[in-house]
Design a protein that fits this description.
Blueprint: H1 8-16, H2 41-66, E1 70-81, E2 93-102, E3 107-114, H3 115-125, H4 139-160, E4 170-180, E5 195-205, E6 211-218, H5 219-233, H6 238-244, H7 257-262, H8 309-315, E7 322-325, H9 333-337, E8 355-359, E9 362-372, E10 375-383, H10 386-392
Antiparallel strand pairs: 1-5, 2-3, 2-4, 3-6, 5-6, 7-8, 8-9, 9-10
């Protein structure tokens, strides 16, 4: 009769078919891992190129999504035991974006961020400034962070395909998770002693405290990737180059050996150079006169941003901050320090003037203040044109 329950390590050992004690450090590794460092210096050089491609994609994509200047720098690439990786992640929680790489035998890969970095990325995605972040990541923030990393992955894989000779790459079975840092590992089906390759990228967004993004591959898969890149970048032999480059149209074809044996070449008498052939074209028939005049463009109006409709459809579900502004004024620091209960601050609007409705700090409408069930509201009385709204939002 069993007098106690099996712990998770014992269950994992039974499922993996290991006959050794799961707590032993010398237990056999499961899955696509490595129980010892296997990346050579040449391998690390190739993987540094991979990390550079991902850094460049991170800078471009996050800069586009946030509308800010972003600097993404590779600070370090290491090969460490996966159980040690969590020590490099800040905070009590870790956000991981895992995927399988289609085109590389469904190779598993992962992006890892601390909770603060995930919250900052999500807030920038939603039009914020990454300063007033929530204490905990909710479903809305997690969804925005996952969407941001998904676009980053797509751009990085497109660039990475160049190192693989133009092969198609895509991410399948991708998903994001927020988990407690204690005991977390990127590949839980493998032993903690298995080694992984980690590229640590520092993301410095304009006006935001920098945060880290880690790119993780198992060492075995990193070695496989470097082999594929070397094969793709290796110079081709002459027969392969001839097969890869089709013969240009009109180029003289080299005679076949059999034809040369059957038809031995005979000395040909010298021929005088021929004069270039002259061809007389028939006269072009005269048609009716063509009406030629300067083009007149219609004034730019509501259709000015019609070409951006596809871009707007991509972001219609992203929440934004709506602010109602009663008015503004300027005060010196001394005047602000002198404010107290009963002080009156005069604004730059007259009484009865409509208030401004701002979206992410950009004016889109004006209206009048109303009271709805003891709550303030705004009745919109004027909406700026669609073209002006799109222009003010920077789309």
């Amino acid at each position: 009769m069993v007098d106690e329950f099996l712990n998770q390590d014992e269950i994992d050992a039974l499922l993996s078919g290991s006959e050794e004690n799961p707590g032993d450090s010398g237990s056999a590794s499961t899955g696509a891992g490595s129980g010892a460092p296997i990346l050579t210096g040449d391998d690390m050089t190739v993987m540094k190129e991979v990390a550079g491609v991902i850094s460049s994609a991170s800078s471009n994509v996050i800069g586009m999504l946030a509308g800010r200047t972003v600097s993404a720098n590779l600070t370090e690439q290491v090969e460490i035991q996966q159980g040690e990786l969590i020590k490099t992640v800040e905070g009590a929680h870790v956000f991981s974006y895992s995927m399988n790489l289609d085109g590389l035998d469904s190779m598993p890969a992962m992006f890892v961020m601390g909770e603060r970095g995930a919250l900052a990325l999500a807030d920038l995605m939603m039009g914020g400034d990454a300063k007033d972040l929530p204490q905990e990541a909710n479903d809305l923030y997690l969804s925005a962070a996952q969407e941001g990393l998904s676009q980053l992955v797509g751009s990085a894989l497109t660039s990475l395909s160049g190192l693989l000779g133009g092969g198609r790459l895509s991410a399948t079975s991708s998903e994001g998770h927020l988990a407690e840092s204690a005991g977390w590992m990127p590949f839980p089906d493998e032993a903690a002693e298995n080694y992984v390759w980690v590229a640590q990228i520092n993301l410095d967004v304009e006006g935001v405290e920098p945060f880290m993004l880690d790119v993780v591959l198992s060492s075995k898969n990193a070695v496989e990737l470097t082999g594929k890149i070397r094969d793709a970048m290796a110079p081709k032999s002459e027969p392969e180059q001839a097969a890869a480059q089709p013969q240009a149209a009109g180029a003289p074809k080299s005679p076949q050996p059999q034809q040369q044996q059957q038809r031995p070449q005979q000395p040909q008498p010298a021929q005088a150079p021929q004069a270039p052939m002259q061809v007389s074209l028939p006269p072009r028939p005269q048609g009716p006169p063509v009406d030629v005049r300067s083009v007149e463009f219609s004034p730019l109006g509501g259709s000015e941003y019609a070409g951006n409709q596809g871009n707007i459809d991509l972001i219609v579900d992203i929440p934004v901050r709506v602010t109602v502004e009663l008015g503004r004024t300027r005060k010196t620091i001394g005047e602000v320090l002198a404010l107290g209960p009963g002080s009156v601050v005069e604004l730059n609007k007259m009484a009865g003037e409509p208030v401004d409705v701002l979206v992410n700090g950009k004016l889109i409408a004006r209206g009048e203040v109303v009271v709805i069930d003891e709550s303030f509201g705004i009745r919109v009385t004027e909406v700026v044109s669609k073209a002006e709204r799109i222009r003010s939002m920077g789309v």
